[in-house]
Structures are given as C-alpha cells and as structure tokens.
Specification:
alpha/beta, two-stranded antiparallel ribbon, 12 strands, globular, binds L-rhamnitol, binds zinc ion
C-alpha cells in the first residue's frame, strides 16, 4: 500500500481481536473494561478554538501587534478566517473525536459585525453566535480573557504593568471576560474563565517583586465580583519567547494565589522545565487548591504547545488523575497549535490522544498495584506496570470509538483528506 492508498482508504481498525476477549482479559485483573469505556467517554474534554486559526482571533484591529509570547509556526493551507469557518471545521473534527466535548473560546474570537469593540468593552452579545452554536451541539463552553496580541501589552506587561492605564485596561478586560463567562454559564452550565498573561522580562530582571505585588492586587480586583457559575482559574508559565528571564505568573506564584484566594489553578503540560511533568503535582496541589484545570499539550524544547500525543507524559497525567481518587476535581482542556499540518488533523490527533490516555488510565489494574505497594512487594508492582503494555488495549479503544460514534483505526484520515479537498483547498 502507498501513502496515497492509505489516505484514500477507510482503514478501520476493527476485528483484530474481539472486544469480548479483551474484556475477559482485563476482568481477570479486576478491571471492568465496560465501566472504563463509559467513564472515559463521559469525561468532558474542552477543545480549544485557537487550533483552527493559529491563534489569530477575529478582531477588527487597526494596529499590528506581535503575538505577545504566543507564536504559531507553519503555513499549511486552509486556516479558518471567520467564526463560521472555525465552527464548520470543528463540527467536522468533532465527528472524528469520540466522547463528551466542550468548546473553549478566547475573548478575541468576539464577533462584532465589523465594529471595533476594544477588549475592555466586550459583552456577552458579542459571543451569541458561539453560545447558540454550543447550545445546538450540546456542548458546554469555556472562556479566556485574551491578554496578548494587543497594543496595550506594554513592555511585555499587562496586569502587572507599572503603568496605571495599562493595568486598568487589562483589569477591565478580565472583569468583562468574567461577566461573559457568567452569561455563558447561565445558558450552558458552569464553565471556566482562565487567566493567562504573558507578563515577564527578557533579560537581567531587576525587579521581580514589584510586578508580582501589582499582579496580586490586579487579580484581587478582577475576582472581586461574586459570579457563582464561573470557575476562575489562573495559568502559570515558566518562560515565553521574548520573556526568557522572568515570568511574573510563575507556578509558585499562582499556586500560592489560588490556595489563598480559593480560585483554581491551571497547569499546562508545556509550562515547566523540560523534564518537569505535571503528573506528580496533581496530588500535591489538590489538597490546597481545587479544582485543577489541566491544559493538555506537549512541550518540545522551547515550544510549549505541540499537538498532544499518547506519550509517557500524557499517560502519567491521566494515571495520576484516576489514581488520586479526586478525578471529579480535574477539568480537562487541550491547548496546542500547529500551523504546519492540517489543522483538523491536529485537533483530531490531539483530542483522540487525550481520550485514549484517559481510557488507558481507567484500565489500569490499580488496586493490585496498591496492594503490592503496601505489601512491600516492589517487584510485583513493577511487573504489573510492565504488564499494561501487553494487555489488549487496542481492542478496548476501538470499542470506545464505536460506542462514541467515531471512526476506528486510521479511517478518520480519509475523512480529513476529503474535507481538505472539498472545503479547505478553496480558502
Ligand atoms: C500560553 C498558554 C495559554 C494559551 C492560550 C491561547 O502559553 O498556554 O493557555 O495557549 O490561552
Ligand atoms: Zn495553556
């Protein structure tokens, strides 16, 4: 078979091993594969809109700006250029992704009908097309203030700026965003409002305390209004392009903030030192700050946002979420962008990989591992960990896809090829 044959084929994965045999194998180890499939399918996964258009947004803007620490690379054809195109693309991708979905919107995807509405003046009605669409599709909707790619990002600072006017603008934008999130929640149920700011310094930072003190004050003002259906989250980062030396909103900063203010922490898999994973942080953070929002992503060297994959890091995160016994306190969202490949394929691969890793974690013979650990039997524990790779996981995943009305195997690839030919190539 050639690559062209492959891309044109409907290569379903079915039939190599029966699900019933796989079910029995897991049952021998005390794992209920049916329950695992149901639970993995029912876990809401919030899909970020910004994969559709390389984090460009829909604003009518008069001034050009740099990305403010966010940069998508690549120029694969077919980028979505309007709300309608993003919605059409995601409707297509969603048919290829099994399980419960939500959508995740950034403020600069407001649709203002050509009118220039600055970010501090945004209102719920600027998002009515998104809200109606999610309602029709049966999806919840999450929200994010957009504190980057705007001329009011001054000297790489927003909420932590020493300039009162700059700070005011971003505080007002975040307050407006929370009210939009509340309006969304009233229609579609509770959702997150996640604050990430790019604030930092490129080199030889002289004052690390000042910006942090100002950020605390600004956040306190942003969060002052009681909006009961909004889950407020703050997202930390280690560094960004152009702010390599110092990031105001570091992990320790936001961990302390969330724990003392009673808001939630967002941990993005790409926002730590290259060998530092977030899996271990789940059980360390939850006793002090709950819930946790996870941004599932993949750091590669200095880029924090490669397409999520079913790799060791993602599996470790899902394993810990399930093992912790606090699964319901974890909110699942993806955050990646790759402009060098078909954007629907990026979504499909990333979202499927997360669902797959959730299933993987839910199929772990965890009770046996715990028993071995407390019995002091370290070698049995290791043997159980190794055994996971030998179990018929693929058959259970295919069953999940079938129950979730999504293609198995590589059949989804042919769907994407067709959509690229029929829709994306005309853009
Ligand atoms: C940036 C953060 C943030 C963004 C989105 C667009 O490094 O991860 O979550 O990716 O808000
Ligand atoms: Zn993120």
């Amino acid at each position: 078979m050639t690559l062209d044959d492959l891309l044109a084929s409907e290569l379903e994965g079915h039939g190599r091993m029966s699900y019933d045999d796989a079910y029995d194998r897991y049952a021998e180890l005390g794992v209920d594969a049916d329950a695992a499939i149901d639970r993995a399918l029912a876990t809401p996964l919030s899909v970020h809109c910004w994969q559709a258009d390389d984090v460009v947004g829909l604003e009518a803007r008069d001034e050009a700006t740099d990305g403010g620490g966010i940069q998508a690379t690549g120029n694969y054809p077919g980028r979505a250029r309007s709300g309608d195109e993003i919605r059409a693309d995601f409707e297509k991708a969603a048919t290829l992704i099994p399980g419960t979905l939500r959508f995740n919107l950034h403020a600069f995807y407001a649709e203002t009908g050509g009118e220039v509405v600055d970010r501090d003046e945004l209102r719920p009605e600027h998002f009515s097309a998104w809200i109606d669409w999610c309602d029709e599709q049966g999806w919840g909707l999450d929200f994010n203030p957009t504190c980057f790619a705007h001329p009011m990002v001054r000297d790489s600072l927003t909420l932590s700026s020493e300039d009162a006017e700059t700070r005011r603008f971003w505080i007002d934008h975040c307050i407006a965003s929370r009210r939009i999130a509340e309006a969304i929640a009233q229609r579609l149920g509770p959702g997150t409002c996640n604050i990430w700011i790019p604030d930092g310094r490129k080199d030889a930072t002289a004052d690390r305390m000042g910006p942090r003190a100002r950020l605390i004050e600004a956040l306190d003002e942003v969060l002052a209004e009681d909006l009961p259906d909004v889950i407020d989250t703050v997202e930390s980062k280690l560094f960004g392009i152009g702010v390599e030396d110092y990031t105001v909103g570091s992990h320790e900063f936001y961990l302390g903030y969330a724990a003392t203010r009673g808001c939630a922490l967002c941990m993005d898999m790409g926002h730590y030192h290259p060998t530092e994973g977030i899996a271990d942080k789940i059980s360390a953070v939850l006793p002090f700050a709950s819930p946790i929002l996870l941004h599932l992503s993949r750091g590669v060297r200095w880029d924090s946002d490669h397409v999520a994959r079913f790799n060791d890091d993602l599996r470790a995160v899902c394993d810990e979420a399930v093992r912790s016994g606090h699964f319901d306190e974890i909110i699942w969202a993806t955050d990646f962008f790759d402009a060098s490949i078909n954007r629907l394929a990026a979504w499909t691969i990333g979202e499927r990989s997360v669902r797959k890793a959730l299933l993987w974690a839910m199929l772990e013979p965890h009770a046996l591992a715990v028993e071995a650990e407390y019995a002091g039997n370290g070698h049995a524990k290791l043997a159980l960990a190794e055994l996971r790779a030998e179990l018929p996981f693929g058959a259970v995943w295919e069953e999940l896809c079938a129950r979730g009305d999504a293609p198995t195997g590589l059949a989804w690839l042919a769907e994407i090829e067709r959509y690229e030919r029929e829709v994306l190539s005309g853009r």
